[in-house]
Amino acid sequence: MKIAIISSSVREDRKSNRVALFFKNYIEANNIASVDILDLYDYQFQVFEERLSFQKNPLPKTLEFAQKIKSADGVIIVTPEYNGGYPASLKNVVDLLLDEWKRKPVAISTVSAGAFGGTQVITSLQFTLWKIQAWTVPVMFPVPKVSESYDEQGSPTDKVGSEKRAKAFIDELLWCMEAKKRMMS
Predict the structure, then answer these.
(1) Strands 74-80 and 34-39
(2) What pLDDT was estimated at residue 146?
(3) Beta carbons within 8 Å of 117's beta carbon, 6+ residues apart
(4) pLDDT tens sequence across 93-148
(5) Is the dihedral of CA 17, 23, 26, 27 positive or negative?
(6) Of 129, 114, 2, which Cα lies nearest the Cα of 68?
(7) Dist CA 3 CA 33 (whole Å)
(8) Are 146 and 16 spatial neighbours (Cβ–Cβ below 8 Å)?
(9) How open is the CA angle 61-67-68, to the nearest 5 degrees?
(10) Radius of gyration, CA atoms only, the chain
(11) How distant is the alpha carbon of residue 123 from its chain centre?
C-alpha cells in the first residue's frame, strides 16, 4: 500500500509540516505502508489557469505530482487553518486534478496555533473533495497549539496520546483503502 501525505502550507515559518513529518515517521516506524510527503512548499506551483487534463504543456513537476496522487492508495492532507479556511496552495492542487481524486480515500488532519485545532476548515475542505468525488475518511486528526504539540522533526510532546489518535486515524484510512481495493477487483 502507498500513502501520499500532502503538506499544504507554503509559508516560511509553517508549523503544519511538523504533523506531516509525524505521520511519515509513524507510518514508517510501524511498517504500515510506503509513504511520500508531497510538500507544496518544495513544489512552489504557480497558480494554475487550467486543470491538468486541459493543459497543453504541463510542467514536469505538475505531472510528477499528479502521478504520485494517482498511484497512491490513500492520501493524508495536513492543512493549517488560515482565517477559517485552507491555504490557496491546497485549493490550487485539489482543483488541478480530477480523475486522480475520484474515489481516492483522503484523510484530513487540520492544524492551528489556537485551541480548536483547525476544525473550522474541515467542512469546506470536505465539501471541495466531495465535489470532485474523492472519498473523505470519516475520522479527523485536528491538532491544536501545534507549536507546543510537535517539534520541527515531527516528534510529538505527547507521544502516547498522539500515537493512539494516529492509530485510529490511520486504521480508518487503511480500511477505506482496502475497501476500495476490494471494490475495484
Answers:
(1) unpaired
(2) 96
(3) 110, 111, 142, 143, 144
(4) 999 999 999 999 999 999 999 998 888 899 999 999 999 999 999 999 999 999 99
(5) negative
(6) 2
(7) 7
(8) yes
(9) 90
(10) 15
(11) 15
How far is CA 42 from each of CA 13, 80, 88, rounded to the nearest angstrom?
A: 14, 17, 15
Asked if 126 and 158 touch (Cβ cutoff 8 Å), the reply is no
The grid coordinates of residue 7 equal 503538506
CB of 94 within 8 A of CB of 133? Answer: no
Residue 14 backbone phi and psi in degrees, to 5: -70, 150
CATH architecture for the domain at 2-184: 3-Layer(aba) Sandwich (3.40)
- The confidence score (pLDDT) of residue 90 equals 97
Tell how strand 105-111 and strand 135-140 pair up: parallel
- Predicted TM-score (pTM) of this structure: 0.96
CA 171 – CA 180 distance, rounded (Å):
14
Burial of 114 per CB tally in 10 Å (0-12, 13-18, 19+): exposed
- How far is residue 78's CA from residue 37's CA, in Å, rounded to a whole number? 10
How far is the C-alpha of 33 from the C-alpha of 28, rounded, in Å?
7
Which residue in the block uniquely carries the three cell numbers 498511484?
Answer: 71
pLDDT digits (tens, 9 = 90+) for 31-86: 999 999 999 999 999 898 899 999 999 999 999 999 999 999 999 999 999 988 99
- What pLDDT sits at residue 184? 84
